[in-house]
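A favour, since you know our structure tokens better than I do. Would you make up a two-line entry for one protein for me to read? Write everything out right here, beneath this request.
=====
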Amino acid sequence: MTPFLAELVGTMFLIILGDGVVANVVLQKNKGHASGWIVIATGWALAVTIAVYLVNAVSGAHLNPAVTIGLAAIGKFAWAQVPVYIAAQMLGAFLGGVIVWLAYLPHWAATSDQGAKLAVFSTGPAIRHPFANFMTEVIGTFVLMVGVLAILRPENLVPNSGFEKGFAPALVGVLVAAIGVSLGGPTGYAINPARDLGPRLAHAVLPIAGKGHSDWGYAWVPILGPVFGGLLGALFFRACW
């Protein structure tokens, strides 16, 4: 498996499980319908954990353009590889969205709420306030970036001890759970441009009954906010540790 394929597969699994839990909660006539935010936050944390375990040994399991760009900005990843990783992440996220659509195929027609259908694929604000929404995504991704870099420090997970391979993905999942329950309410915590844009594109092109628009006017927030937050987090970590 090449790094490109690893990032594609890892991001695809991330979206299958992450968007899948949202579908289970918000689409009508599901066994998990209306089970709430904690189920969604838990499902996303587990999705990240599983996806990182799948491909960490091959690509480092960035699964997120904000992470890739942030690592490159502080010299922990080659800039030449950034377009390759981002292309893989975007394609994987799009495919993941298509697979979730297939998994819940009868439930799109059974759901009348257009917003719920879009929420399966992409994030949206609880209160639409572009600057505040942007800042929420910056803060969430800042926490993600600093947290990931801190978890992987030799003081926490000694390199080549074996523990970093076994525990790092689970700890990243704990970090994502913390972000979801603490900071996820205002915007749905995209904290990942590919996680939002790839499935949003899937929503736009798939034949989903009564789906409505894909809210492209908001789409810049979960793209630029995480990129900016990831850069800030990486630079902050480099300056402080």
